[in-house]
Write a structure and sequence with these properties.
The complex is a heterodimer. The termini of chain A are far apart. Chain A is globular. Chain A is an all-beta fold. The model of chain A has no long low-confidence stretch (mean pLDDT 93). Chain A has no helices and eleven strands. In chain A, strands 2, 4, 5, 6, 9, 10 and 11 form a seven-stranded mixed sheet that branches. In chain A, strands 1-3-8-7 form a four-stranded antiparallel sheet, with no helix packed on it. The model of chain B has no long low-confidence stretch (mean pLDDT 94). In chain B, a hairpin with a 4-residue loop joins strand 4 and strand 5. By secondary structure, chain B is mainly beta. The chains are: A mainly beta, B mainly beta. Chains A and B meet through strand 4, strand 5 and strand 10 of A and strand 4, strand 5, strand 9 and strand 10 of B.
């Protein structure tokens, strides 16, 4: 069964460093998403991406975040200058369309720890 | 502010028990409600509900939506230890691609 994959599974970085989280969405899906879950809190939407551009973003997704689809399979989230409060589990998701009735399928997540 | 509230936040039962998990929502332009099961990592999709009163069923799991009272329930019958997980409820809205999640219900099934 097709699935969303993410690498790395864990990432430890120093405050102020740049990190890139990688995702391979399900191959025939067209919409891609990033969510994060700070330990003990809700899963929160960060950004959605379609046709090589951001289609929606939350207040959390500020200038230190960026997303990119560098090739036909990968989808990345870059955090330019990490802060302690960026420590969280980051989930990538994909869906066949962006309609509200379309199921989003999640990857296993990358646990980011900023020291 | 759009919100999804789940209850209880945690629940401990014995194998064979039946459990009911609750999810209420207040979101503008509501379209659908989704249930996910989160074990160690990825939320895995269980159900999507768009119509009121129509039960969706998969094995021992079932779910129903009440769009008048703005809530959904997830039932698990004859629970097994493998049902232990956090169950997440999320709502979608017309004109938006995001999922609005609740905090989840942590279910622990003891042998």
């Amino acid at each position: 069964e097709p699935e969303v994959t993410q690498t790395p599974s864990h990432q430890v970085t120093q405050m102020g460093q740049e990190v890139i989280l990688r995702c391979v969405p399900i191959s025939n899906h067209l919409y891609f998403y990033w969510y994060r879950q700070i330990l003990g809190q809700k899963v929160e939407f960060l950004v959605s991406f379609y046709n090589n551009e951001i289609s929606e973003k939350s207040e959390i997704f500020d200038d230190q975040f960026s997303v990119e689809r560098p090739d036909g399979s990968n989808f990345t989230l870059k955090i330019r200058s990490t802060k302690l409060e960026d420590s969280a589990m980051y989930f990538c998701a994909s869906s066949a369309s962006g309609r509200a009735e379309e199921t989003q399928y999640f990857g296993p997540g990358t646990r980011l720890l900023v020291l | 502010e759009d919100k999804v509230v789940q209850s209880p936040l945690s629940l401990v039962v014995h194998e064979g028990d039946t459990v009911t998990l609750n999810c209420s929502y207040e979101v503008t332009n509501f379209r659908s409600l989704l249930w996910y099961k989160q074990e160690k990592k990825a939320p895995t999709f269980l159900f999507m509900l768009t119509s009121s009163g129509i039960e969706k069923k998969s094995g021992r799991l079932s779910s129903i939506l009440d769009k008048k009272e703005l809530f959904s329930i997830l039932n698990i019958t004859a629970t097994q230890t493998g049902d232990s997980a956090v169950y997440l409820c999320a709502a979608t809205q017309g004109g938006s691609e995001k999922l609005v999640f609740g905090k989840g219900t942590k279910l622990t099934v003891n042998p």
